[in-house]
């Protein structure tokens, strides 16, 4: 399997994809924050949080970030595994899926393995990780099409994902789906197993963890970009989940990447 560019990108300024427009590999791209304007074979798509973009070898591709604060996961790859996956069914160019932390974790594992020196990489491990990612993407796309959860809850989740870096309130979520606050809170918890605040915090923590690994922003700036109102609040929530302070976590990750 050939892995090209793989990882997480966060654009704080306007950006245009700088490479040749005709792709020689598959591209799997998940918008996690902000928006992007994508041109594939002459057709324009605007991707927003939760939008999964699939591009195949030979397609003409352009990416433009017209407004800053845009984040995405991406994987350029090729090989028999991808060919077989693509041949198993018809997939939409852009599909709205849930931003599942487990999916992002798989993406991070692939990125870490692909960035190792070539003589330290495990081809078998990369292959299995990519296979697992493809299976999870297929399930997410099916979930998105069949609306396994009530559509109103999916609308709540999309609202939260779109506004996760803003200081929204539960009443804003309720207003977005035309329900009372009490009904919104009860239905979301019943279907997802999480409160609205817990779901928002899980995404914010994921965004913060990604930026700590892949950007040079200060911790205070990361807290702000991830939607936390204050750094002390971010520090407390982060330590509760990861067991260490953000600064310690970042230092440990940097040491691990240098090994």
TrEMBL record:
The keyword Transmembrane helix does not apply. Transmembrane segments: none annotated. Residues 154-252 form the HTH araC/xylS-type domain. One of its GO terms (molecular function) is DNA-binding transcription factor activity. InterPro entries: AraC-bd, Homeodomain-like_sf, HTH-like, HTH_AraC, HTH_AraC-typ_CS. It holds the Pfam family AraC_binding. Keywords: DNA-binding, Transcription, Transcription regulation. PANTHER family: ARAC-FAMILY TRANSCRIPTIONAL REGULATOR, HTH-TYPE TRANSCRIPTIONAL REGULATOR EXSA. This is Arabinose operon regulatory protein. It comes from Exiguobacterium aurantiacum.
